[in-house]
Amino acid sequence: MRDTCPSLLNCCVGGILIGGLILALGPSQESLGQPTSPPSDSSEAWHEDAWAPILERDGLQISYLYYPEADNEHDGIVLRLVNTSETPLRYAFTLVFRAPGAETDVSVRGRLEPGEMRTGDDAGLFWMPFQKPDRNIGEIGLRGLEIDPVRSGSSDGSGECLLETAARGVRGQNRLSPVP
């Protein structure tokens, strides 16, 4: 089963999180004399709500976190990939970063075992794509998504995640990273 996503999926990263942060730092409803809402569902860990979904298709969930000033200066993005299927999956896509007057991308491909999650810098899934002070990430998206189930006994480089830098200035793990 192969799935491709030829168009770019745009996800706004700045406004949503900044707006949420402002609301979280404002006065509580109780201090304003307004009735409070019932408690939210606590069946999932709080950190699950922090991830913004990009897409879920054929057993692969892709979500992200936006870090304004990740290194005290430049914006960063971290991806989380989760295999929700009962078979190993091979994936490949191009992650696109856009800022006013700039665009860059990286190719991401690898394999996930059933139930496996991969995220963060150690997995090669963290980037600070724009290093100029006047460039902040405005959009992220995917191009050319391919998802294939891995048949048992296939020799496909399992346990590796390869990231290729498609443009200069993209910081991330640009090497083979063994799966623990």
Low-confidence stretches: 1-32, 157-180
How many DSSP helices?
1
| Count of separate structural domains | 1
Shape: elongated
Mean pLDDT: 71
Q: Helix/strand-derived class?
A: mainly beta
- By CATH, the topology is Immunoglobulin-like
- Number of E-state strands: 11
* Beta-strand percentage range: 35-45%
Put the structure in a nutshell:
The chain is mainly beta. Helix content is 7%, strand content 39%.
Describe this structure in words.
By secondary structure, this protein is mainly β. The protein has a single domain (11-23, 47-178), classed as Immunoglobulin-like (Sandwich). It is built from 1 helix and 11 strands. The strands form 2 sheets. A 6-stranded antiparallel beta sheet has the order 1-9-5-6-10-11. Strands 2, 3, 4, 7 and 8 form a 5-stranded antiparallel beta sheet that branches. Strand 5 (89-99) and strand 6 (102-112) form a beta hairpin. The longest helix has 12 residues, at 14-25. The chain is elongated and about 50 Å long. 23% of the residues are buried. Residues 1-32 and 157-180 have low confidence and may be disordered.
